[in-house]
Amino acid sequence: MSAAIPQEWIDLIDQGHLAQAKEKLLERYREDKKDAQVLFLLGLIHFKQDDYDQAIEYLTKSVELDDSNDRAYEILGQAYGFKAERAGIVKSAMLLSKMKKAFQSALELNDQALGALEGLFMFHLFAPGVAGGDQQKAMEYLDRIKQVNPARGHLAQALLYGKQKQPEKAEQEFDQAVAKGGDDADVLMKAGRFYMNYQKFDKAQQALERYVALKPEDPSGRDALGDLMLHQQKPQEALDYFNRAVELNASFYPAIFNKGRALKQLGRKEEARQAFQQVIQMDKKNPMAAKAKQELQSL
Fold first, then answer.
1. How far apart are CA 168 and CA 170, in angstroms?
2. Where in the chain is the domain with CATH 1.25.40.10?
C-alpha cells in the first residue's frame, strides 16, 4: 500500500507553491510510479501551470490505477477542454469527445461532481450543434448545478446571460453568486474578474480582497488585485501587489509577467525586460512565455 500524502504537500498546492509541491511529489513518484494519488496531484499541478499535455499524461495514469477518484476525472476533463481550445478543428473534436467522457465518468462516481456538471454545461452552451452542443442539455445541467450549489448556479446563469449579450443581467447573477458564496474563493475570483472586465472596479476590489482574506498565502489574489490596478491605470499600486505576490511565491510566473507589464508602464524598461526574460527562462513551453517574448519585442 502506498504511503499517505502529507497534508502539508496538499497545502502547498492549495497555496500556489506548485514548484515546491512538485519537487516533493516527484521524489515520491521516483520511488513508486504506480501511486495513483501522487499521479493525480502531479497532474493537478501541471494543470494549474497550464501544462495540459503533461497533466493529461499523469491524470490518465492515475485513473487507470484508481478509477474511483471523481476529482481526477474532473481535472482530466478540464485539461482536455483547455487543450481543445488551442487545437485545430479535427483534433479539437477528438479532445472534446474525451473531455465529455471524462466528465461523464466523474458523474457516474459522484452525481454531484460540480466541476463535471459545470464542464458539461459550458460544453453544451458554447459548442455548435455539429460538434455535439445542445442548448436543452445545457439548461438541464444548469438546473443540476443550481441544486448542488446555488452560488455556482448563479455563476453558470451569468455565463448564459453573457453569451446572450446581456451584461446587466450577468452582473446581477455575479452579485447573487458573491452574496451566497462569499466563502467560496473560486466564486470570488471569477466575480472579481468579471467586474474588472466590465469596469465595475469597486465591486472587483471588494470581491478580490475577500479572496485574499480567505487565502492569504495564495499569490493569485494579489496578482488579480494588481491586474485591477493596471485596469485603472495605476501601475505603481499594481507593482506593489505583484511584488507582494512574488514574495509569497517566487515561482508564480503570472505575477512576474504582470510585474513586467507594470514596470513597462512606469518606464522602467530594463527591469521590465528582466521580468519578461525570467518568465521565459522558467518555462519556455508555457503560453505565458510566448506573451513575454512579445512584450520583449515591444520594449
1. 5
2. 8-84+96-107, 217-299
pLDDT score of 291 more than 80: yes
pLDDT digits (tens, 9 = 90+) for 213-263: 999 988 999 999 999 999 999 999 999 999 999 999 888 889 999 999 999
Whether 288 contacts 50, CB under 8 Å: yes
245 grid coordinates? 505576490
Question: What pTM does this model have?
Answer: 0.85
- HSE, side-chain direction, 13 A CA sphere, residue 161: 16
CB atoms within 10 A of CB 161: 17
**Which architecture, in CATH terms, is 217-299?**
Alpha Horseshoe (1.25)
Do 40 and 58 contact (CB within 8 A), yes or no?
yes
Please give the distance of CA 181 from its chain centroid, rounded to a whole number. Answer: 18
- Number of H-type helices and E-type strands within the chain: 17, 0
In this predicted structure, the answer to whether residue 1 has a pLDDT above a threshold of 80 is no
